Q: What sequence folds into this?
């Protein structure tokens, strides 16, 4: 069974930091690529960062490069999104996702991130 449970969202001032966590079932962690998406009010869901299950290589949306870091801890079956220098436009619901190649078919429930100006 694929399970993804996000935590760590909240309210932060612009320029601040947050770290999101996604607890993943062991089978999911070893079988799928993992990613973080976000959806702002009135906008489509967009990918923020991804990490390969095999090589650990990462990729980022241009809007977050240099500010966000995706990482994983195999011992804890957890993937993280460290978000620094947050901006109001980073506000949205952040989702953890699992999938094959670049198609993500499994989703967590989401966690709200609000960045105040």
A:
């Amino acid at each position: 069974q694929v399970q993804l449970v996000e935590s760590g969202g909240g309210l932060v001032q612009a320029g601040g930091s947050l770290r999101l966590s996604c607890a993943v079932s062991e089978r999911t962690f070893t079988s799928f690529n993992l990613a973080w998406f976000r959806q702002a009010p009135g906008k489509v869901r967009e990918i923020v960062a991804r990490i390969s299950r095999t090589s650990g290589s990462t990729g980022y949306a241009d809007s977050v490069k240099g500010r966000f870091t995706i990482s994983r801890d195999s011992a804890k079956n957890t993937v993280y999104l460290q978000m620094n220098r947050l901006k109001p436009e980073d506000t949205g619901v952040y989702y953890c996702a699992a999938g094959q190649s670049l198609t993500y078919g499994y989703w967590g429930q989401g966690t709200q991130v609000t960045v105040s100006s």
Remarks:
- The CA atoms of residues 37 and 47 lie 4 Å apart.
